[in-house]
TrEMBL record, chain A:
Protein name: V-type proton ATPase subunit
Keyword ATP-binding found: no
A GO molecular-function annotation: proton-transporting ATPase activity, rotational mechanism
Gene name of this polypeptide: vma-6
Organism: Lachnellula subtilissima
Any single Pfam family the record assigns to this protein: vATP-synt_AC39
Gene Ontology CC: proton-transporting V-type ATPase, V0 domain
Quaternary state and interactors: V-ATPase is a heteromultimeric enzyme made up of two complexes: the ATP-hydrolytic V1 complex and the proton translocation V0 complex. V-ATPase is a heteromultimeric enzyme composed of a peripheral catalytic V1 complex (components A to H) attached to an integral membrane V0 proton pore complex (components: a, c, c', c'', d, e, f and VOA1).
Key words, A-Z: Hydrogen ion transport, Ion transport, Transport
Its biological purpose: Subunit of the V0 complex of vacuolar(H+)-ATPase (V-ATPase), a multisubunit enzyme composed of a peripheral complex (V1) that hydrolyzes ATP and a membrane integral complex (V0) that translocates protons. V-ATPase is responsible for acidifying and maintaining the pH of intracellular compartments. This subunit is a non-integral membrane component of the membrane pore domain and is required for proper assembly of the V0 sector. Might be involved in the regulated assembly of V1 subunits onto the membrane sector or alternatively may prevent the passage of protons through V0 pores.
Similarity comment: family membership: Belongs to the V-ATPase V0D/AC39 subunit family.
From TrEMBL, chain B:
Protein name: V-type proton ATPase subunit F
Keywords: Hydrogen ion transport, Ion transport, Membrane, Transport, Vacuole
Gene Ontology terms, MF aspect: proton-transporting ATPase activity, rotational mechanism
Function description: Subunit of the V1 complex of vacuolar(H+)-ATPase (V-ATPase), a multisubunit enzyme composed of a peripheral complex (V1) that hydrolyzes ATP and a membrane integral complex (V0) that translocates protons. V-ATPase is responsible for acidifying and maintaining the pH of intracellular compartments.
Organism: Lachnellula cervina
UniProt xrefs under InterPro entries: ATPase_V1-cplx_f_g_su, ATPase_V1-cplx_fsu_euk, ATPase_V1_fsu_sf
The UniProt record lists the keyword Transport: yes
Subunit structure: V-ATPase is a heteromultimeric enzyme composed of a peripheral catalytic V1 complex (components A to H) attached to an integral membrane V0 proton pore complex (components: a, c, c', c'', d, e, f and VOA1).
Gene: vma7
From TrEMBL, chain C:
Cellular localisation: Vacuole membrane
Organism: Lachnellula arida
Name listed for the protein in its UniProt record: V-type proton ATPase subunit D
A Pfam family per the record: ATP-synt_D
Major place of residence: membrane
Lineage: Eukaryota, Fungi, Dikarya, Ascomycota, Pezizomycotina
């Protein structure tokens, strides 16, 4: 049924996004990129995909400006799609930006807490998480004012309400604030795709649930792993786990009681995917190594985070196999973000002459 | 015999003047320190393209002469270049001044004021 | 031409010989002075720096040089681990890190180290416990990379601290180094400048001698030739005289005139010879 009227409102968007998806760099492109000797070569190789956006770069640009310009393209395309979206899709795309908004608000909270001029922070904010009233938040000089204006001016209000007071912003570590918000956001997003009349029971809900559940589990596992050795208590930690996902509720409960990597491994045992990752990353054995991504330890094994990213990309890729779904927009943004991170990584490896690690990018096409 | 203990015994911090990446990395290592309020002085300065040389010099003076709790001052070499006259004329033993490379500017021994002195000494 | 490789490029003239001689004299005087006030004596009288050997200074400078180069590599690896954080977190953590810095976990202790009787300052790094400003950074994403990066940077900073110790030692030893520099000059003067000047003088002398010998030989040759010529003339003369005497004996009237002519000729020949001899 959903296919009957989908194209009336959303056919154009779907076409555009599928076009964008075809513009993503392929394994062959990445191969060419890794052969580059200088950033200028890299720029040249990126020409077909990013031409206009890289044209203004000076010779041998720094990797951060390269990342900035490639992000600009994503932003431009996202805004175009958003401008053409109507109804539930428009709302869906707004939800997509809330995640970035959380990061931006966390940044502003940090600035306000330390009595910095938050206006300087605006340019550091992620453009996808930009909202019109953001400059208003900069007027706030103390945390209570900021808290109130966040409640009034931003779509994030429901995520604050009930779980964070303005004293909390002052007292809690900003990472806990951020992750609390993110948990609320994920739950809300999940609820939205499964209850909105335009989406419930459609492929959108199906694919998005899979993506969001994975995201929720990933966060829960990461938070647990990263909290070892810090002063984050188990009860506080438990509050950061989203209340859905494939690990929820048994796995989450076990995660909340885990005291070491082994405990996490046991907790995820019930989900075969995650169990495979733990085995592949060599976690839960004697050394709780962060894996291959760090410190030049070499080897072909991937870290758990790498495997999670890989999985996210595969889910995103498979989202495109479904017709009449909003999820492709989400998947496209994620794929694009990964592409930007890949390019930045390759550029970084070239710039810093660390070619042996250059193959660490994630490519699914 | 020895230099008076008062000249160095309180010097327990490192300070850094550098670009964002260098400062972030060094702060992650745990060198960051902010003194007690109300003055809340930081022991680091992030320099970007908008920072003018006067601000760098001021921070340099603050870390080298005003503050007595800095043992080592790290400065990115490309930033040291911008206030080279100050760096070259700095000869005090405390705090020790160290030129370090940054991500985008690899280390060039030719520019290092101390290494230049070493070179000159051996007539190389 | 002994020592041709180690002498100054001069024309072997008497003027340059004079110059070289005065230069040698200057170098010797200077060297004597440097020697008399040599480095061990200077340091012995200097209350701050009792007897540090030039070996130790060379050692320190060598280690500074080495450590500085090592630092370049270490910092590069550290910078790369930060790039990994950026990759894993998927964003910039710079601002957050700057703002969450409160109390230094990594500190240095300044102490003095006894290096063969000289007190050199040294830094020693230590970390304070229970002081973790960034423990939760990257909690939701990339936390493992952040931790790894912290370790990498902590190791890098340890290298920097080590380097700072060396460098401070260097700065404090700068005075000593200047003195050593003088000693180096003394050595240079003893082993390079003086022998070289001496060589040059020797060379000039030998060249001048050689010229003298050549000249002497040439003059001798000329003299020989002259003598031979005179002898030939004499013989001719004698023949003529004999012929004349015979003719006189035949005629007997013009003999006295001829005698007079020959006498003047002899006198001229003799005066010429005398000139040549001079």
């Amino acid at each position: 049924m959903e296919g009957l009227f989908f194209n009336v409102n959303n056919g154009y968007i779907e076409g555009i996004v599928r076009g964008y998806r075809n513009g993503l760099l392929t394994g062959q492109n990445y191969n060419n990129l890794t052969q580059c000797e200088t950033i200028d070569d890299l720029k040249l190789q990126l020409g077909p995909a990013y031409g206009d956006f890289l044209a203004s770069l000076p010779p041998n640009p720094s990797t951060s400006t390269l990342a900035e310009k490639t992000t600009d393209k994503l932003i431009a395309e996202f805004r175009y799609v958003r401008a053409n979206a109507v109804g539930a899709l428009a709302k869906f795309m707004d939800y997509l930006t809330y995640g970035y908004m959380i990061d931006n608000v966390a940044l502003l909270i940090t600035g306000t807490l330390h009595e910095r001029d938050t206006r300087e922070l605006l340019e550091r904010c992620h453009p996808l998480g930009w909202f019109e009233t953001m400059p208003v938040l900069c007027v706030a000089t103390n945390i209570e004012e900021l808290y109130n204006s966040v409640l009034i001016e931003t779509p994030l209000a429901p995520y604050f309400k009930g779980s964070l007071s303005h004293q909390d912003l002052d007292e809690l570590n900003i990472e806990i604030v951020r992750n609390t918000l993110y948990k609320n956001y994920l739950e809300d997003f999940n609820n939205f795709v499964n209850t909105d009349p335009d989406m419930a029971g459609t492929p959108t809900a199906e694919v998005m649930t899979e993506i969001l559940e994975f995201e929720a589990d990933r966060r829960a596992i990461n938070i647990t792993l990263n909290s070892f050795g810090t002063d984050l208590s188990k009860t506080d930690r438990k509050k950061l786990y989203p209340s859905f996902g494939r690990l929820y509720p048994e796995g989450s409960y076990m995660l909340s009681r885990a005291e070491d990597v082994e405990g996490v491994r046991l907790a995820v045992e019930g989900v075969s995917d995650y169990k495979t990752y733990f085995d592949a990353a060599g976690m839960g054995q004697s050394s709780a190594g962060a894996g291959n991504m760090s410190g030049g330890t070499g080897g072909d094994g991937k870290s758990l985070e790498d495997l999670f990213y890989q999985k996210e990309m595969e889910i995103s890729k498979s989202a495109f196999t479904r017709q009449f779904s909003f999820a492709i927009v989400y998947a496209w943004v994620k794929l694009r973000e990964q592409e930007i991170r890949n390019i930045t990584w390759i550029a970084e490896c070239i710039a810093q002459n660390q070619k042996e690690r250059i193959g660490n990018y994630i490519s699914v096409f | 015999m020895a230099a008076p203990a008062s000249a160095y015994k309180d010097r327990q911090f490192l300070a850094v003047i550098g670009d964002e990446d260098s400062v972030t990395g060094l702060l992650l290592a745990g060198i960051g320190h902010v003194t007690q309020p109300p003055d809340s002085q930081k022991n680091f300065l992030v320099v970007d393209s908008k920072t003018d040389n006067a601000a760098i010099e001021e921070a340099f003076n603050r870390f080298t002469t005003e503050r007595k709790d800095i043992g080592i001052l790290l400065i990115n070499q490309h930033i040291a270049e911008r206030i080279r006259h100050r760096v070259d004329t700095y000869t005090a033993a405390f705090p020790a001044l160290l030129e370090i490379p940054s991500k985008d500017h690899p280390y060039d021994p030719e520019k290092d004021s101390v290494l230049r002195r070493v070179r000159r000494l051996f007539g190389e | 031409m002994s020592g041709a490789g180690n002498r100054e490029a001069v024309f072997p003239t008497r003027q340059s010989l004079g110059l070289m001689k005065s230069k040698l004299k200057g170098a010797q005087t200077g060297h004597d002075l440097l020697k008399r006030k040599n480095v061990s004596e200077v340091i012995y009288h200097d209350p701050i720096l009792p007897g540090i050997s030039s070996y130790e200074i060379t050692e320190i400078t060598r280690r500074i040089d080495e450590a500085k180069r090592k630092m370049g590599r270490v910092m590069q690896i550290a910078a790369f681990s930060l790039a990994e954080v950026t990759y894993a977190v998927g964003g910039d953590i710079g601002y957050q890190v700057q703002e969450s810095a409160k109390s230094a976990r990594f500190r240095v202790r300044t102490k003095q180290e006894n290096v063969s009787g000289v007190f050199l300052p040294a830094f020693e790094s230590y970390t304070t416990d229970g002081n973790n400003d960034f423990g939760l950074t990257g909690l939701g994403k990339g936390g493992q990379q952040v931790q790894r990066c912290r370790e990498t940077y902590a190791r890098a900073v340890e290298t920097l601290v080590e380097l700072a110790s060396l460098q401070t030692a260097f700065v404090i030893l700068d005075e000593v180094i200047k003195v050593v520099n003088r000693r180096v000059n003394a050595i240079i003067s003893e082993h390079v400048i003086i022998p070289r000047t001496e060589n040059t003088i020797k060379y000039i002398n030998s060249e001048l001698d050689e010229l003298d010998r050549e000249e002497f030989f040439r003059l001798k040759k000329v003299q020989n030739k002259k003598q031979r010529d005179t002898a030939a003339q004499d013989a001719e003369m004698r023949l003529k005289r004999d012929a004349a005497e015979k003719a006189e004996a035949a005629s007997g009237s013009t003999s006295s005139d001829k005698e007079n002519e020959l006498g003047t000729g002899d006198i001229l020949g003799e005066s010429e010879d005398a000139d040549v001899i001079f």
